[in-house]
Design a protein that fits this description.
2 domains; elongated; Rossmann fold; four-stranded mixed sheet; CBS-domain; five-stranded parallel sheet
């Protein structure tokens, strides 16, 4: 019986200096193409961004092959920044999907050569139906460039591989330009962080942009609060019975006077020279932290987290209209997925 020949596993390439140098060279090359393109931008960028920002329908993005993936990503970026956009596959479009196009739409067509057959068929249809076309191409003399309402120069001197064949620098540049357009449209429309959050309700990003202090704060009767005349003995008992590790002290009008924390208690006991009974019978207000940091209930919870991290504290009293309405703890923010 003959046995199957055994093949030796391929030896993995060593990440030596030559490989690192080649990778670094590719990154520098692609970066240089983006810098060069930025210098070629013209005043028609204003008109392009105004056209996209005022689009009453949808922004259609199209491209074939590798450029098609860039167009898909560009559509996703525009959608996430509040501009309705879809990817329109050029081949499928000319075989029945053109029904999604309306005269209120704008087409952004990507083709390095500017002569992609399926793209040109799309351009012809858009021209007959009065749909504006923005062409992103590396050939300003191409059919795409000549039949577009606006053109952005996406020319690259070469691709990144030794044969200058694989779409690398050209697709990277188109991706960067589409990002630049999306950001410009976003700023032109005055897109806010709150609006951004509405389109990203899932995951940590949505939580950071949507979650308010009021959503995670502790409220009465869960928050330990008493008047500032309480003795240190009674204050310690109140702190021990609650899980926040602190006690809020208020004046006669209910305004926050200070916060008594575990740290305040430790420092007090370490520095006290008299009898223990004398200390325990003293007013808690004498050792509390006066004028503590506070936060309003409508503030983003992420702001509270950042404040706690910067000031190395674990609890923030929540104050609305001068009154103590709650407390937010670092552990609650972490549990909510903000950290």
């Amino acid at each position: 019986m003959s046995s199957e020949p055994t093949s030796k596993p391929a030896t993995p390439a060593r990440a030596d200096g030559s490989i690192r140098d080649k990778m670094a060279e590719t990154l520098r090359l692609e970066a240089s193409m983006i810098v060069a393109a930025s210098a070629r931008l013209t005043d028609n960028c204003d008109e392009i961004v105004n056209l996209l920002g005022a689009c009453g329908g949808r922004i259609l993005l199209t491209g074939m092959g590798k450029t098609g993936f860039v167009a898909r990503k560009a559509a996703a970026t525009l959608c996430s920044t509040g501009a309705p956009a879809i990817f329109l596959h050029p081949s499928e479009a000319v075989h029945g999907d053109l029904g999604v196009v309306s005269q209120q739409d704008v087409l952004v067509a990507m083709s390095n050569s500017g002569e992609t057959e399926e793209i040109l068929k799309l351009i012809e249809f858009m021209g007959r139906n009065g749909v504006p076309v923005i062409g992103l191409t590396g050939n300003l003399n191409s059919t795409l460039a000549c039949h577009s309402n606006f053109v952005i120069d996406c020319h690259v001197a070469r691709e990144a591989d030794q044969l200058s064949l694989a779409p690398t620098c050209s697709t990277t540049l188109m991706l960067a330009i589409s990002d630049a357009l999306a950001i410009a449209v976003m700023e032109q429309r005055g897109f806010t962080a709150e609006e951004f959050a509405q389109y990203h309700p899932g995951g940590s990003l949505g939580k950071k942009l949507l979650l308010k202090v009021s959503d995670v704060m502790h409220v009465a009767p869960a928050i330990p609060v008493t008047n500032q005349s309480v003795t240190l003995r009674d204050a310690i008992e109140m702190v021990s019975h609650r899980k926040l590790g602190c006690l809020f002290l208020t004046d006669r009008d209910g305004n926050l006077s200070g916060v008594l924390t575990d740290g305040d208690l430790r420092r007090c006991f370490q520095s006290w020279k008299g009898s223990l009974d004398q200390l325990m019978d003293s007013a808690a207000a004498t050792v509390m932290t006066k004028s503590p940091l506070t936060i309003p209930s409508h503030q983003l919870a992420a702001v509270g987290l950042r404040t706690m991290e910067e000031r190395q504290i674990t609890v923030l009293p929540v104050i609305d209209d001068g009154k103590l309405v709650g407390a937010v703890h670092l552990h609650d923010l972490i549990k909510a997925g903000l950290a």
